[in-house]
C-alpha cells in the first residue's frame, strides 16, 4: 500500500483554516481585554478634569473624606448616587458641575458620574436624585447618569474622587454630554472647586 499524501491544495486549505482560527482568536482576545479595561467593563474617559482654586468645601453625610464608600452606592448595593453637601461657592459662579472619577481603574481614569447645570445657590444633592434644572451627562459605561463604582474583585481599593466645579459661565451642554465634553467645558470656565474622596474594594 502507498502512504497517503496531502496535495498542495489540501495543505493550503488546512493552513488557511489555521490562520483564520488564529485571527478569530486574536480578535476575541482583543475584545475581551477592551471590555475588561476601565472599571472592569468599559473604556476610560478621554480628557482629564482640570484643576481650579480649592474654594469649595465638599462633603457627604453618608461618609467621611478618604473613608470607605458605603456599599449601597456601589454595584454591590442599591446603585444609587450618594448625598453631597457643599459651601464656599464663588459669588460670580454661573453654574456648578459635578464629576466623579476613578483614577485607579485598570484602563485609565474612569468617569462614573457627571452633572451639569447645577444652580450656584444650590447647596446639596440628595441620594439618588438631582437638583431642579440639573442635567446628567454620560459616564464611561456609556449610559447617562450615575454609574456605580464596581472595581474588579480581588484587587486593592480604588479611589473615587467627587469634584464639584464652579464655572464662570454656563456650559451650554445638554443631558447625555460625554465625559470629554464635560471636562472640556470645565477646563475653559472653572473658577473654583471642591473635592471629596472615598475608597471601595470588592
Report what the structure shows.
The protein has helices at 8-35, 179-189; strands at 57-59, 67-68, 84-87, 95-102, 110-118, 124-125, 135-136, 158-167, 190-200. With 202 residues, the chain is α+β, with helices and mostly antiparallel strands. The protein has a single domain (57-200), classed as PEBP-like (Phosphatidylethanolamine-binding Protein), CATH 3.90.280.10. The strands form two sheets. The protein has a six-stranded mixed beta sheet with strand order 2-9-8-4-5-7. The protein has a three-stranded antiparallel beta sheet with strand order 1-3-6, with no helix packed on it. The chain is globular.
Arithmetic mean of pLDDT: 84
Binned, the helix content reads: 10-25%
Largest sheet: 6 strands, mixed
- Number of individual domains: 1
Per the CATH scheme, the topology name is: Phosphatidylethanolamine-binding Protein
Oligomeric state as shown: single chain
CATH superfamily: PEBP-like
**Any idea what the shape is?**
globular
Helix and strand pattern: HEEEEEEEEHE
What is the CATH architecture term? Alpha-Beta Complex
Strand neighbour order, sheet with most strands: 2-9-8-4-5-7
- Helices and strands: which structural class? alpha+beta
Q: What is the CATH level 1 assignment? A: Alpha Beta
Amino acid at each position: 500500500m502507498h502512504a497517503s499524501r496531502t496535495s498542495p491544495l489540501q495543505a493550503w486549505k488546512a493552513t488557511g483554516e489555521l490562520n483564520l482560527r488564529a485571527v478569530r482568536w486574536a480578535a476575541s482576545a482583543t475584545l475581551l481585554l477592551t471590555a475588561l479595561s476601565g472599571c472592569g467593563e468599559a473604556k476610560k474617559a478621554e480628557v482629564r478634569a482640570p484643576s481650579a482654586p480649592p474654594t469649595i468645601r465638599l462633603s457627604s453625610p453618608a461618609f467621611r473624606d478618604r473613608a470607605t464608600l458605603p456599599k449601597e452606592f456601589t454595584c454591590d448595593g442599591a446603585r444609587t448616587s450618594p448625598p453631597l453637601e457643599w459651601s464656599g461657592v464663588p459669588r460670580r459662579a454661573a453654574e456648578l458641575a459635578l464629576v466623579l472619577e476613578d483614577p485607579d481603574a485598570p484602563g485609565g481614569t474612569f468617569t462614573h458620574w457627571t452633572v451639569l447645570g447645577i444652580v450656584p445657590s444650590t447647596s446639596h444633592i440628595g441620594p439618588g436624585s438631582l437638583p431642579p434644572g440639573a442635567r446628567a451627562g454620560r459616564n464611561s459605561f456609556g449610559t447617562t447618569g450615575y454609574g456605580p463604582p464596581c472595581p474588579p474583585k480581588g484587587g486593592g481599593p480604588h479611589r473615587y474622587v467627587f469634584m464639584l466645579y464652579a464655572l464662570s459661565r454656563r456650559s451650554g451642554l445638554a443631558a447625555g454630554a460625554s465625559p470629554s465634553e464635560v471636562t472640556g467645558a470645565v477646563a475653559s470656565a472653572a473658577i473654583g472647586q471642591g473635592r471629596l474622596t472615598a475608597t471601595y474594594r470588592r
